[in-house]
Amino acid sequence: MMKTHENRALFSRALLKATTCLFLTAGAGVSSVWAAPETTESMSTEMVQQQTVTVSGVVKDKKGEPIIGANIMEKGTTNGTITDFDGNYTLKVKNAKSILVISYIGYQTQEIPAGNSGKKDITMQDDSELMDEVVVIGYGTQRKGDVTSAISSVKSESFVKGAVTDAGQLIQGKVAGLNISLPSGDPTGNTQIMLRGISSLKGGTSPLVLVDGVPGSLNTVAPEDVESIDVLKDGSATAIYGTRGTNGVIIITTKQSRKEMAPTIDYNGYVSVSNILNRPDFMDADDLRQKWNEGYTFNGANLEDFGADTDWLGELTRTAVSHSHNLSLRGGSKNTNYTASINYTNRQGTFIKTDFEAINGRMDITHSMYDNKLTANVSTFVSQHTMPRSWNTYAYRQALIHNPTEPVKDENGDWFERDLYFYDNPVSYIRETIGEMKRKNIRFNGSLTFRPIESLTLKAMYARRSTTSTDGYYQTKKHVSTTKSGRNGYAYRYDSDFDNNLIELTANFQKAFGKHNVSVLIGYNYEDNTNSNLSMSNYDFPTDAYSYNKMEAGMALKRGEASMTSYKNSDKLIGLFTRVSYNFNDRYLLMASLRHEGSSKFGKDHKWGNFPGISLGWRINRENFMKNVNWMDNLKLRVGYGVTGINVADPYTSLSSLNYNGAFLYNGTWVKALETIRNNNADLRWEKKHEFNVGLDWDVLGGRLGGTITTIYVEQKMLFGTTRFLFRLICIQPC
Asked: What is the pLDDT of residues 267-315, one digit of tens each?
């Protein structure tokens, strides 16, 4: 170990000689610390200077050796210095409330208050000690060094920087086996996540997303408010979530304030510009005329020259400007911590009338009482997302196939249209459509945590989520639906409502007995969901002024040609779960879990199922035969096995169902027709997936380089057969 420190010292001296000064800036963030208001309106320069504080000291490692070239910064400013050959530093800061940020490669970054003028010696901790870093697992946390499953953890300092649409893009390319993509350039779209490639007949393929332990989505919270993202990838880690964990689990942890933290305001923002990078190269009007002169013939839409020169794709595209702003307030005292933030985002798409506007608000308050034995937490999320309903891919297709000699409008100023099958003016199609989708989300969760003794934690949590959506669009009398189909104005309206209730009760016991460390978790989970919606359409309106907000005005309703649909459904999920973790001498590791879960969606003979998971780990670098291998910081072999299930999407698949199929005239009377569309299926059960994996985790060079090699075998038993596949994940990544 001494050689490692000597090498660092030699490297530091060389770096110090080559660099006279090093300053670290805070990127896009700007922080300020509130101070009590002054008693006078103005202060002399002499009084301001008297408030400054000079801090000095020595920066050293845990062996007591000085660290040369370490950075000491005043948080939220560019004021900083570096340590000399003996690890000494001196820095003058604004006042005693300033925060010092100390960092150096290979060591953990620290933050300490400046306090009054005086000596502040600092001891840095090796990055190799990040094996003690806490990662989030199902219904709890675990030391990174004790993890025996395929789990990846990404902290905020490693997130993707720049303009990101949601929390998913923060870890794009950061987790092996996790495919994160934005399938289109639509600014209203969300990232799609697939973990290791999933198949299912009746269920979804998206992983379970938890935000501070409560089910949500990747856009529940603004990316600027995310502290860390943990990904549970294999069956041994996700089995404790039963049917919800089969496609993997993504756990998002939001930023929280620290105890005795001065009120601090942080601002983050960005502005971005986007355009089409590789524009498709089509024939323009002159190219098409040249081909005609050469004798080429084309389809029916491109046989005639209309005398114009139109760039149809150019008519639909633009240079898009987007911007986002996030303002947060954090602070805390000995017993109470609070966090509040508001985020505003406005994104433009590269196509006209594709805009996305979002407002997100968050508030979190935690209060401890009775000597920290009882802790109460209340958290709320509120958001509103607004997006247009004018754009669709049909218009893009029309722009690609349209005759470039056609004008956008004729000599009378009307939209130029031709009566051809599936051939419409793409500009009028978009411009003559008025529409908007507005989605409002409200989430509340509260919890009580009681610690009667140091080793036992009891927690009760309740959460409620509500989402309401209003979606509507109107095609005017100048829209092609009127000029070709004679609808004379067409309106569509859709309203939906979703409610979710979640109750979780857990008890966690953790105790160390000499070389033995044991943790036992037991819990109960109840969840119910209710969905309802109403949609309607009508046409032949007396004016365009009503848009889609006076649906009864359309004459098609009076002729019985309008449409209306509605539905409501609900489902319940109940789970009992337990997990045992065991660590012997920080070398041999065990984690076993079992979930007994019931779902209202399945047949009466298969409402309940069991989902076990077990994993083992061996920290090879802790063995005596590895004690002289100083460059190896972590070498862990692990194996795991787990069973998860897939819940069906339709809550009534197991029940017989009737469908309304219009009406028929019988003996001069109109009779409503009902027909049976599905018989009762008492044997309906979940698909089950069995996963077995073997992995090797390693870290070298003080934790600055590490990686994972994993082989996973999957056997998925579906309703009509079994699929099996094997794949390997290899990840090498600087830490």
From this structure: 999 999 988 888 888 889 999 999 988 888 777 777 889 999 999 999 9
625 SS3 class: helix
Q: Pairing state of beta strands 490-513 and 516-539?
A: antiparallel
Which of 93-97, 442-446, 462-466 shows the lowest per-residue confidence on average (mean pLDDT)?
93-97
In a domain, 168, yes or no: yes
Q: Is the same domain home to 141 and 247?
A: yes
Q: What is the DSSP letter of 426?
A: H
Whether 371 is covered by a domain: the verdict is no
Predicted pLDDT of residue 188: 64
Q: Check the CA dihedral 302-307-309-315 and report its sign.
A: negative
In a domain, residue 378? The reply is: no
Encode 504-543: b = buried (16+ Cβ within 10 Å), e = exposed: bebebeeeeeeeebbbebebebebebebebebbbbbbbee
Integer CA distances (angstroms), 370 to 102, 226, 257, 375, 450, in order: 35, 30, 21, 9, 10
The β-bridge partners of 592 are 580, 614
Instruction: Please indicate, yes or no, whether residues 85 and 148 belong to a single structural domain of this protein.
Output: no
157 plus 111 within the same structural domain: no
Length of the chain equals 735
Query: How deeply is 618 buried, as exposed, middle or buried, from its count of CB atoms within 10 A (0-12, 13-18, 19+)?
Result: middle
Between the alpha carbon of residue 397 and those of residues 217, 391, 492, the distances in Å are 31, 12, 23
pLDDT of residue 173: 82
Q: What is the pLDDT of residue 685?
A: 81
Range of the domain at 668: 649-683
Per DSSP (E only), the strands in 476-549 are 490-513, 516-539
pTM of the full predicted structure?
Answer: 0.76
Q: CA-CA distance, 122 to 199, in Å (whole number)?
A: 53
Instruction: Decide if 303 contacts 332 (C-beta within 8 A).
Output: no
Q: Is the dihedral of CA 322, 222, 245, 682 positive or negative?
A: negative
Give pLDDT tens digits for 139-189: 888 877 778 888 888 888 889 887 888 888 899 888 877 888 776 666 666
Looking at every residue in the chain, the average pLDDT score rounds to 83
Total domain count, the chain: 3
